[in-house]
Amino acid sequence: MLDMLSLMLMSVPVGFIGSxxxxxxxxxxxxxxxxxDIPVKEAIASGMVTxxxxxxxxxxxFVRERMANVKIAMYLEMFTITGAILGATVTTIIAPTYLxxxxxxxxxxxxxxxxxxxxxxxxxxxxxxxxxGWLELRGSxxxxxxxxxxxxxxxxxxxxxxGMFVAGVAAGMLGIGAGAFKVTVQESVLxxxxxxxxxxxxxxxxxxxxxxxxVYLLSGFLNVTLMAPMAVGTTIGAIVGGRxxxxxxxxxxxxxxFIVVIFLIAQMLYKxxxxx
Length: 276
Prior knowledge:
two-stranded antiparallel ribbon, mainly alpha, 2 strands
């Protein structure tokens, strides 16, 4: 059985990796908790609280360094919050076995990114559609690796919002933040630079998790013994990750992203098969 100190120490590197990849630490912590025989619905509910801590820790650094685009995040959060409330409600009533397979299936969507090169940023948006232009979804940041200011514009705002609604449903159901899918939507559909999509994803994840947590609180699945040390550990890791992100190359971030996603898929498929 895990004690509070072990949970906190385990959560620090998880928060660090979750911050760098935009996944959120809970997507890694939940499989670990299930491995230690924590009921999956309880692990998911506790993971949602951890996501709030991770997002708060890393997002503060990203906003200060102007990596996270707050305006774009606020627009996308309308979709993710609605989806999270719906997803969390579904989790409280379905059989736990289905959650393992949905977890793995949803993470497979991350491999949409394989269609692009791992050496290049997403193709920039040169001509905004009417909605994206009307909302003025654009921004800039200073890239410490390239030593230059990168300006960007967002395309396909409506389609991206639909994709983020799906991400919100998955986040609410699985307690993972759905950072993998959010990053993919922001890069592939909205045409945001990799570092901006990671930073903005971390910002959005916290608000999405807060919406889902409200449902789990009312359903009685929150475990304070799990939540407290995990929140502290992931926050520490996320703060460090937020300070390191802009010093890493985009290729390194994508490689780390895929390694983590592959591990999570394998873990959830195994647990799902064993639970049949």
